C-alpha cells in the first residue's frame, strides 16, 4: 500500500482516479491545485504524487 497525493482540479477525474487507486489498496489524499499540494507536502511525505500538468498554477 502506498500513500498517494493526487493533485487534480477536475472533481470527476479525481473521484475516478481515487476509486481506482483505493481499489488497489492505496491510501489517497486529493487536493484541488498545486498550491494545496505544496502545503500538503510540507506536512506529509507521500510515496507518490500524481498531478494534472495541463493546468498547473504558478506557486512562485
Detailed description of the structure:
The protein has helices at residues 11-23, 34-43; strands spanning 3-7, 27-31, 48-51. It is α/β, with parallel strands linked by helices and 60 residues long. Strands 2-1-3 form a three-stranded parallel sheet. Strand 1, helix 1 (11-23) and strand 2 (27-31) form a beta-alpha-beta unit. The longest helix is centred in the first third of the chain and has 13 residues, at 11-23. It is flat and about 25 Å long.
The overall pLDDT, averaged over residues, is: 90
Count of separate DSSP helical elements = 2
Largest β sheet strand count, sense and barrel closure: 3 strands, parallel
Please provide the ordered H/E string of secondary-structure elements.
EHEHE
- End-to-end separation: 33 Å
Gyration radius from CA atoms, angstroms: 11 Å
- The percent range for strand residues is 15-25%
Number of strands: 3
Unreliable residue runs? none
Helicity, as a percent range: 25-40%
Amino acid at each position: 500500500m502506498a500513500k498517494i497525493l493526487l493533485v487534480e482540479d477536475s472533481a470527476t477525474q479525481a473521484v475516478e482516479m481515487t476509486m481506482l487507486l483505493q481499489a488497489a489498496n492505496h491510501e489517497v489524499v486529493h487536493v484541488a491545485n498545486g498550491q494545496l499540494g505544496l502545503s500538503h507536502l510540507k506536512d506529509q511525505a507521500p510515496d507518490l504524487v500524481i498531478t494534472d500538468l495541463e493546468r498547473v498554477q504558478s506557486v512562485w
